[in-house]
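Hi R.,

Here's the chain you asked about this morning:
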Amino acid sequence: MWISSQWNDYEVLDASDGEKLERWGSYVLVRPDPQVIWSTPKKDPRWRDFDARYARSSAGGGRWSAHRLPEHWDLHYGPLTFQVKPMNFKHTGVFPEQAANWDFIRRQVQRAGRPLQVLNLFAYTGGATLAAASAGASVCHVDAARGMVAWARENARASGLERAPIRWIVDDCAKFIEREIKRGRRYDAVIMDPPSYGRGPSGEVWKLEKDLYPFLRLVSGVLSDKPQFFIINSYTTGLAPSVLTYLLDTVVASRFGGGTVSDELGLPVRASGLALPCGAAGRWTSGTEE
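And the predicted structure, written out as tokens:
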């Protein structure tokens, strides 16, 4: 498991009964987590004295309760700064487990020994974009949600990267890739964090298990002659990390050599000393990643 253990501003304090108790800077949140199927004693007093809790509704969705939070606040990870906001569907704008991938991205960019063009698809609020840009890469950041791209730009400004070579694109990822192929634009690295389920701009349905492979083949059409790395993230329950290895080896390694390693992403839990599983990632590299 790739565990994001280098946070100072964030930690999972405990996890029990379908929820996790988290510290986000100086604020404590309780949020649901489907992986937490165990029931352990809730000894931390912050289970009862939190700043906000997201409670699911039996009718669907949910809401934040006992809300003692500002509209937003900053969270720091190394040279990166993120604006945290409690949103619908329990999100905050940051997936802390992705820090393990941010570290990997920075290493890959720095070790390349040449300027890299990096493409970040389904790029959300820009964690991977900022990691690549802070290490010296030029980045194309693509997301279909205008609000998410605006939020990512705010994070870039907060991280001192407002003048970094980042292209901010609001577009459907598949349609953008099709146009990039026609334009002949190429990238040395690709990062993608596709949803498990979604709808395109014309109402077309995206389902990861059905659509990821053809989409990956499409995206491979924008890789340069000597790509450096390729990352796929997945939060789809039941999709084994080894599936990501198979995909990347079939589409990318078969063409460019190198190799793929896939694993779960995780966060340390202070109360137990164990790791909370938080999805999976597959990483193809042209060389060997330590």
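Residues 8 and 77 are 7 Å apart (CA to CA).

Let me know if you need anything else.
M.
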